[in-house]
Amino acid sequence: MPRSADPTARPIELGRVLERGTPPAVELWLEVVPDPVERAAQIDELDAAQLQTLGALLDTDSGEELVSTLEPHAAGDLLVALGSESAGVILDALNTDLAAEVLRDLEPAAQEEMLAAVPAAHASVLRGLLAWPEHSAAAHMSPDVLTVAADVTAAEAITSVRASAAQLRADAQSGGYVYVVDGRERLVGVVAFRALVLAPAGTLVADLMDDDAISVAPLDDPEQAARTVLDQRLLAVPVIDTERRLLGIIIADAAADIAREEATEDAELQGGSQPLDTPYLRASPWLLWRKRIVWLLVLFVASAYTATVMQLFEDELEAVVALAFFIPLLIGTGGNTGT
User: Fold this and answer.
1) What is the spatial distance between Cα 311 and Cα 2, in angstroms, rounded to a whole number?
2) 50, 55, 170, 297: which has the fewest C-beta neighbours closer than 10 Å?
3) ∠258-164-95 over CA atoms, to 5°?
4) Which residues pair with 192 in a beta bridge?
5) Which residues fall within 8 angstroms of residue 151, CB to CB, at 6 or more apart?
6) Which of 77, 134, 74 is nearest to 280 (CA)?
């Protein structure tokens, strides 16, 4: 019978859980403390020795669950504290795009230390993703893509896809499409899994594919790529270079995450602050000051112009005193509009 959560009960403290020193105790903590914010707060309270104990108690499954629910910044801090050996096992278990996102927030030296502990094949893929600029479409793509040739039959394509899928990681996400490429790995079309499976066995892939597939460039703005996926209601969009070589795909889940992050940045800008790139409660006073000072100076200059405008209409205000009552209303309306 599942446990019923009491909203008034105090969450189990991770420090006390670690005193038990057993993996099942950590698994129980993950079950009864599902809130990522609460998890991150409790991890922040641990000292170095407790973090090492936590790393020793986390197995592949529990480590993946814990890291995947934390913000990338908090997840990176946790992996550094756990040590490269434990961190390498957890990173290898994470989805490739999530592992790259966590590593991107680390210093270069820490990145290399973590990557050295990851199996070579997976580390090579992660390095490829980290090589792209953070604010590019390619930084958010999944490199695991299923491809077939245009001159094979549907039956042959299905056999090829099955063979290719067996070599992919268990967490690979294909986005529901098979991509048609030529001998130089250039994209020539796309065909949906459903169309491929339901087609007569002898039908050529060239007759099934859409040769006018929507695509994005690797250095395109991530928000633009995400909007392409969401607005066109695609399961994924291919990322191709200038020679139309297929580099990877951006799946719908990744596009939704990008759109959500961009919306958060827009909200921060509207609130008079540059994007923090870190959770607000974890930001230092110096960081908060540095992100807001430019906007505060701009608003200070704007307020000086406001005083100038009022001086220009000083005669009208003296003639009709009742107009002064509307000044606070106008100021408040401007603030509400900005918010």
Assistant:
1) 69
2) 170
3) 30
4) 177
5) 204, 205, 206
6) 74
Dist CA 238 CA 235 (whole Å): 10
pLDDT in tens, 216-238: 999 999 999 999 999 999 999 99
Give me the amino acid identity at 50: Q
Give per-residue pLDDT as tens, 101-129. Answer: 899 988 889 899 999 999 998 899 899 99
pTM: 0.69
Angle between helices 84-93 and 120-130 (to 10 degrees): 80
The runs of H, that is alpha helices, within the chain are 14-20, 23-32, 36-44, 48-57, 60-69, 72-82, 84-93, 96-104, 108-116, 120-130, 154-167, 193-198, 205-208, 222-231, 252-270, 285-312, 314-319, 326-338
Whole-angstrom distance, CA of residue 146 vs CA of residue 157: 10
Give the Cα separation of 26 and 18 in Å (integer): 7
Separation in Å, CA 32 to CA 5, 20, 42, 228, 268: 8, 16, 13, 39, 32
Burial 146-162 (b: 16+ CB within 10 A, else e): bebbbebbbebbbebbe
Question: Per-residue pLDDT tens for 4-41?
Answer: 444 445 567 888 888 888 889 999 999 988 888 888 88
